[in-house]
Structures are given as C-alpha cells and as structure tokens.
Amino acid sequence: MLNRILCLSFQDPATPIMEGIIDLHNTIMFYLIVIFIFVLYIFISIIRDFYVPVKSPINVQDINLREILLENNKVVHGTWIEFFWTTFPSVILIMIASPSIALLYSIDELNKPALTVKVIGHQWYWSYEYANVYVTEGAILKKTFDSYMIPTSELKEGQFRLLEVDNALVLPEKCHIRILVSAADVLHSFAIPALGVKIDAVPGRLNQVQLFIKRQGVFYGQCSEICGTQHGFMPISLRVVDFKKFMTFLKS
Predict the structure, then answer these.
(1) pLDDT exceeds 70 at position 241
(2) Same domain, 171 and 192
(3) Do 154 and 242 lie in a common domain?
(4) Quick one: three-class SS letters along 219-243?
C-alpha cells in the first residue's frame, strides 16, 4: 500500500528547479484543501438552514420561504460576507501567483554554462553531442554518440524495462549545464522528471534549458511527445558523476 502511495508522488528532486516545482505543488494543494473544506461547509450550512420538510400532499401554506430567507439572511446577504467572498479569493490567487512567477523566471534564467550538450531526437532514438569541451589546454573535444533502448530480451538482472539504453548521457554534478534540444525528423520531447526538465524537440528549431544537478545518480526519462509507432521505445538515461569521472569519460 505504501509503495502505491509513493508511486503517485513526485520523484526525488535532483535540481533546484524540481524542488521549486514540488514546493509550488504543495502550496497549491494546501490552498485547494482549505477552499474545499470551506465550500463543503457552506453547502452543508445551506442544506441544513434552508431545508424545508413538507407533508404529502404538499400544502403551499406550510412553506413560507420568505420567513426562512429572513431568518437566515446572514448567509445570503450582508456587506461583510460580500466583502470577504470577493477579497479572499483574490488574496489566494496572489499568494499562488507570486511563487509561480518566481519559478517561471528561474526556469528561463540562463547563467554562463560550463558545459553545453546538444540533444537531437530521431525516430526513434536520441543523439548526444558534447560541444566545446576543453579537455587539455588548447584542445577542444567534440564527442557525439547515439543512444538506443536495450531490448527486453537483452536486459540484465536489476535493469529497468523500457528505460535502459546502450549509451547513457553522462553529466557532471554541481555544474551549470546548457542543454540544446532539436529534432531531425518529427516532434519529440526531452523529459526527465527528477530534474524538472521537459522541453520540446522541434525540427529546424533549437530550444535550450539549463541544469544544475545537485547529486550523483542515474535518472531516467522518456520522450513525452507522440512521435510515431515506437514513441514508447526511445527512453532517456542520464548518469551524473563527479567532475573527475566525467573528464575521464570524455577522454576515453
């Protein structure tokens, strides 16, 4: 039961952006619960105060709606209640909008990157390219490789079905990284939930997103755009290591 509940929640965040997304979600859910309880209370109050039991057959003289409304006019009329049901929702919207706008600006903010990786979506695999990487003084490395999904029949024990690839993308931790995303044929979408990344890969257009990964590990994602018959068979596997191991990977 606990595993099912955990599956409905977010993955453990590995970037400040994903942490902000989870915090915004929790904030909005708090306000939604408060609003739900308040509206439920109002409905119950209306049903309790305005319910008129009638006899059969119905006698119109036994139903005096005017007296009922006058006795309960504090629920449907009044300056203060009209003031509160106008200003209270506005205050809630402002309290929700403030962190969401700050999060949107932080997502679009691009610092000077220490590493640039180009991602190209194909039918149905990914291509990665490390651009302008200085391995030694005066030497620039350009490393390009393709990443295909490992078939189910070739999986080893402990590997995940439909998520493992033959060549994973390797990135360093605690480093400002710029990801350039495009496509060679149709629309794709480069999405890794734990990093808070979901960006479209559009043919003829270069989109960019910045990452700052705070911890090492292996993170999985998938193409989130319906791009053809094998749309579900082009996963993303990202391995985050320390900087020394990353440089060793580039030189290998």
Answers:
(1) yes
(2) yes
(3) yes
(4) EEEEECCCCCCCHHHCEEEEEEECH
Structural domains counted in the chain? 2
Beta-carbon count within 10 A of 115 CB: 19
For tokens 């902000």, the residue is: 20
pLDDT at residue 144 tops 90: no
What range does the domain containing 84 cover? 12-108
CATH number at residue 34: 1.10.287.90
**Cα angle 133-134-140, degrees, rounded to a multiple of 5:** 80
For 168-223, the pLDDT digits (tens) are: 999 999 989 999 999 999 999 999 999 999 999 999 999 999 999 999 999 999 99
Tens digits of per-residue pLDDT, 65-86?
A: 555 555 555 555 667 777 888 8
User: Does residue 131 carry a pLDDT above 50?
Assistant: yes
28 and 98, same domain (yes or no): yes
54 vs 63: CA distance, rounded Å? 7
pLDDT of residue 164: 92
Asked whether residue 164 is assigned to any structural domain, the reply reads yes
Task: Give the span between the Cα atoms of 62 and 52, in whole angstroms.
Answer: 9
Considering the domain boundaries, does residue 1 fall inside one? no
Residues in contact with 14: Cβ distance below 8 Å, sequence separation at least 6, in sequence order:
194, 195, 213, 214, 215, 217, 219, 240
Question: Strands 197-201 and 188-192: what pairing?
Answer: antiparallel
Is it the case that residue 50 has pLDDT exceeding 70? no
Q: Are 241 and 120 part of one and the same domain?
A: yes
